[in-house]
Each structure stands twice: as structure tokens, then as C-alpha cells.
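<purpose> Linking amino acid order to shape
<body> The protein record starts here
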Amino acid sequence: MVNMELFHSLKRVIYLSKLDFPTFERRPPSRNKRITIDTNQSNIIKQFSLNITDIREKETVYNHFKSNGDDTHADDILRFQIMFLSSTLDFYMHEITKDSILKMYSKEKEKSKFYETIMISLESVEILRDTPDSVEWLEEEMIHRESFKSYQSTNNIRKCLAMNSKKTIWKIASDYFEGKGISIKDHLTELYEKRNRIAHQSDREPITRIKYAIEHNFVKEKIDIIEEFVNIIHNELKSDN
């Protein structure tokens, strides 16, 4: 009898394998396109948690391949998980940054140094002039100015956290993990480097073209740590409001 849950998971993996994953050369979207965003913090963290659950559920597919002795495809599922995990972290950082900037503008939270250096287009100035009671122009401005950026490397994540708050959130998170004998910087760097090798080199060694090894425990550990890292960030940002 066919395991339908496994069948649908495999279908989804096959579909996603045909898609091009985003790279660091993304272009800003057309300004003619109307965009809206959700600035509710609870919805942002809920979406992150759903994404993490989705990543963990790929374990079913991984176990299927392993139980049938198909290590090649099992390892590819682990690579999918790394890609999705990095993307999930990036998406969270973008969403929470838009939320923070909008709250700073509406005086719901204290302004960061970054806030006062934000540059806006004349188009947005005109919209603000014509509709002074609306914040939609700022929502769109943040999307168009931030959408092409990537918050996956350690340095970019640190800069992003500085945009979001006057608190030293990076240090707070780093100190927390250091107290557990964990370097969050090292883990973020490992995730970022593995993601790049998968996205840009098919996870292959440039000379021999042989795929790099990937371990199940490595992936599981990264998922757990990124989830904990984001929850620490989110708790700190909630206390800003």
C-alpha cells in the first residue's frame, strides 16, 4: 500500500528540485507592482515556526530513502533542508525588519540609528504629501529597498539586527549561546557556506566534481539552533514595543 503522506512529500520535493533557488543577485521588483505586507509580529513568528515544521517534516522522505539503501537521494533531502532553512532565516529577518521600521515610524518603538539614515524616493515623498495619514508608501518603500538584500551571512544578520533595535540583540543572543558552549557565529557561518556550495556548486568540489559529504546530525543541529536563535531575537524585539 502506498504511503500517501510520503507520496505527496516526494512530489513536493521533485517539484521544488525543478525550481531555481534565489541567489545573491536578486533584482528589486518592479515599482509598478502593488505590494502589501503583514506587520503583525505574532504572525511573523508563526510563519517562521510553520516553515521550520515544514523543514523538519522532510525527515519522512529522508528516512524512506535511507531505509531503502538510497543514500544519494537521502543526502539530497538533507541539502534541500539546508536551502529551506537558510531561506526561512532570511525571510524572517526581512519581515521583522519591515515590522520594526513601520513601528519606529508610527512611534510605537524607539528608533534605531539606522532608521534616521533611511533614504526614500521622490515618488514616496509625493505619495506622503498626497496621503499624509497613510503608511502604505513606507511599506512599499521598505519592500523595494530591502527585497534584493540577503540576510544569511553572519555580518548581514548582525547589521540587520542593529537596524531593528537600539538594543545589542546580537550580543544578547551570542552570550546566551556562549553560556551553553555554542558559537552562534560559527553555526551561522557553517550554514551560510553550505547553502552557498549547494546553490552555486551543486555541493560539489570544484576540481573533482565529487559531492561534499553532508551529515544528518549536522542538518538537525542547524535546524534546532536557528529555531532557538530566532526565538531569542523575537523575544527581544517584542520587549521593544
User: Anything to note?
Assistant: The two ends are 53 Å apart (CA to CA). Residues 40-238 form one domain. Confidence is low (pLDDT under 50) at residues 13-38. The chain has ten helices and no strands.
